[in-house]
């Protein structure tokens, strides 16, 4: 008989966003005339930049002609894109990353989900609470979770992030081998500044752990003291893998492209004490189980690094940044407490006293026609909050905020 | 200290095609004027069909306009494509597959590499010898290989395919839980007919094993008695997962799209005897670690199923089919023995007596300027053969065959 991977059965309930979708759909069925605005799932609404459209149109045409057709590309991504990344995302910030340390993929969800494969299945994993569910679920599937007890998996180290500490995690008491950090943070919208990251790099060096640094929202950073890359911190190449995505930066959620950086300096250990290059392990993983990101998509990503492309994506990002400001101001006017939104597309909103995250979700849906994401879906410490996103259109964002203010007045 | 997944270190040597590329590049460096023709890696050369180009150009334009922009798509693929697949690849052959059983991805290499994740890590894996290396390597990485001893991994069941048995594997003596079958076969170019597949489905039912049926080369089938899908065999939905690819069918090697079928009827067992839906497990895997195939690419794939698209890809396939015929006839004229090429883009060529696969590789490169793939790279039973592909242009294929004939005359 063929046995299944029973670690899959340890997974708790449905994927958060699937549950949000299900509840919203049930509501729409009962209220077919309801005019619903989503500030829930972190999906973009603005079209691709003209430079990206032009580059991809050209690439499609190339693929239709014998002389310019391209078959299999390198599993690691085309050198034209890896070089543009090294130059545009790192050298421009004084960070020296070699193109051979960059692996282009079809998105950061895949990379953050798959990277754990090159680590021992007994590795102890640490995550913040609240946290992006993929970090946890991909490790549970690989057997690093264990049973779900008291709101968490018994083998995962949860690092609580309390409002009193600016939603920043303290260093874990028991040394983990893999530490997931996300800055700007999903879901809280907070950031780790230079001092915070320096502390984490020192901790990783001292304990021999590896940091998975998710910088998917890097493009939203506006403050000077916030590193865009963990490699801006000295010594980080010895201890950190960084994940980047074009999803929010350039509206690529449906196009699918991202990359990760696995520095040559990063070594993992064998049980017998030999040192193995993480870059070589990941290269082998990708060459065996991945066949490269679409050529057409990679040409689109390359266009983001042109002067024209850069300007165009900044114009779009400004729309979302402004939405974030509108939401933040609106909920504060309504008397609620909120953080995030400054270096992030996410606003982390305290729900009115006496309500749970899901109760406030239902309230917003029913009284204001707004979909949010309940904070408790990101972990026990997310209880009492909801996440709002700034990715809708300016018009609908403004309408949503007005509706929210009105609905909240009624419960005061 | 962070420990690595030591199963990666059990992997033998470099990936076959990387080794071929390395040797070819070394030769070119020494002979900069050499005019090399590749019949090695299975990569296509003909451009995309006009219907595909048109559909993707339109999709790119859609993504550039607010009203038609699309963000995250379903992790399982868009329903427009899943329906086109159910209709065009299955219903048209009398097979009833529900769209919810179809999962669209960025290629069959990813799917065949990742599918093992939903199975127990103690599952015994059976592969044919010779075999496409990804099946073996992805299982070794997951810990199902064990040590490499006497030309094979100790925990993998190898099913030798001898010329005397038409390169068809016998049923394994020890019952495996996962059986990889590829028809039309890579690398031997042979096929499993209705009788063969019926036998495998019966065996899987009886022993409770699951068949991974790789039908990536299905479009090359010309003979009537050869099933295009394993689901043409009664009862196969209870025991088989099927993998399909647009890479060779429609020149998508650089575009990246494929799909797999995980029937609702297929159940895996837990150690305590419960039955779990393989479809639900794979769905959970994809929702957690994959974010859907690019919208643009899926529109391109959809166009393959239009009347126009179908005709266009058949015209391209005819070019490759004709190349296969030219190679097959040529090597036979040169006095060599070869099979495949009829239902497959691959020709499996016996090397001249007294030579090994790699010696003949060097001979063809040096004396005829031709790159092939040494059969021994596909497994011990591949020794004494090389694989030739029909994916080059008609002109270069003819030139290559003439050169081969000339070179072989000299050693007679």
UniProtKB/TrEMBL annotation, chains A, B:
GO terms for molecular function: L,L-diaminopimelate aminotransferase activity; pyridoxal phosphate binding. Keywords: Aminotransferase, Pyridoxal phosphate, Transferase. Its cofactor is pyridoxal 5'-phosphate. It comes from the Bacteria. Pathway: Amino-acid biosynthesis; L-lysine biosynthesis via DAP pathway; LL-2,6-diaminopimelate from (S)-tetrahydrodipicolinate (aminotransferase route): step 1/1. CDD domains: AAT_like (cd00609). Residues 35-403 form the Aminotransferase class I/classII large domain. One of its GO terms (biological process) is lysine biosynthetic process via diaminopimelate. It is an enzyme of class 2 (transferase). InterPro entries: Aminotransferase_I/II_large, DapL/ALD1, PyrdxlP-dep_Trfase, PyrdxlP-dep_Trfase_major, PyrdxlP-dep_Trfase_small. It catalyses: (2S,6S)-2,6-diaminopimelate + 2-oxoglutarate = (S)-2,3,4,5-tetrahydrodipicolinate + L-glutamate + H2O + H(+). Its EC number is 2.6.1.83. Pfam families: Aminotran_1_2. PANTHER family: AMINOTRANSFERASE. NCBIfam families: DAPAT_plant (TIGR03542). This is LL-diaminopimelate aminotransferase. It comes from Allisonella histaminiformans.
């Amino acid at each position: 008989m063929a046995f299944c991977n029973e670690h899959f059965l340890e997974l708790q309930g449905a994927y958060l966003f699937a549950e949000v979708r299900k509840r919203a759909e049930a509501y729409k069925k009962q209220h077919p005339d309801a005019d619903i605005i989503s500030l829930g799932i972190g999906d973009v609404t603005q079209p691709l930049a003209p430079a990206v459209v032009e580059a991809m149109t050209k690439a499609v045409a190339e693929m239709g002609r014998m002389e310019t057709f391209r078959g299999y590309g390198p599993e690691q991504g085309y050198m034209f894109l890896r070089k543009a990344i090294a130059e545009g995302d790192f050298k421009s910030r004084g960070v020296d990353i070699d193109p051979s340390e960059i692996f282009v993929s079809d998105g950061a969800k895949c990379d953050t989900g798959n990277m754990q494969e090159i680590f021992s299945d007994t590795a102890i994993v640490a995550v913040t609470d609240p946290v992006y569910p993929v970090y946890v679920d991909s490790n549970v599937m690989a057997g690093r979770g264990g049973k779900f007890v008291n709101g968490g998996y018994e083998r995962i180290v949860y690092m609580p992030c309390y409002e009193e500490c600016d939603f920043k995690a303290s260093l874990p008491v028991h040394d983990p081998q893999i530490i997931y950090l996300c800055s700007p943070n999903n879901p809280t919208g907070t950031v780790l500044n230079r001092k915070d990251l320096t502390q984490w790099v020192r901790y990783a060096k001292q304990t021999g752990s590896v940091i998975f640094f998710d910088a998917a929202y890097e493009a939203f950073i506006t403050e000077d003291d916030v590193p865009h890359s963990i490699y801006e911190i000295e010594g980080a190449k010895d201890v950190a893998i960084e994940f980047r995505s074009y999803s929010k930066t350039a509206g690529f959620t449906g196009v699918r492209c991202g990359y990760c950086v696995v520095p040559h300096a990063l070594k993992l250990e064998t049980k017998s004490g030999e040192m193995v290059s993480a870059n070589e392990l990941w290269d082998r993983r990708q060459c065996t189980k991945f066949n490269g990101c679409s050529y057409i998509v990679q040409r689109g990503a390359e266009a983001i690094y042109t002067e024209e492309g850069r300007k165009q994506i900044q114009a779009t990002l400004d729309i979302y940044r402004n939405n974030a400001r509108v939401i933040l101001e609106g909920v504060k006017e309504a008397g609620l407490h909120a953080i995030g939104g400054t270096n992030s597309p996410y606003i982390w909103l305290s729900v009115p006293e006496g309500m749970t995250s899901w109760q406030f979700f239902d309230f917003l849906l029913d009284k204001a026609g707004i979909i949010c994401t309940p904070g408790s879906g990101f972990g026990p410490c997310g209880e009492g909050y909801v996440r709002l996103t700034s990715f809708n259109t300016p018009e609908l964002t403004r309408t949503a905020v007005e509706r929210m203010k009105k609905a909240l007045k009624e419960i005061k």
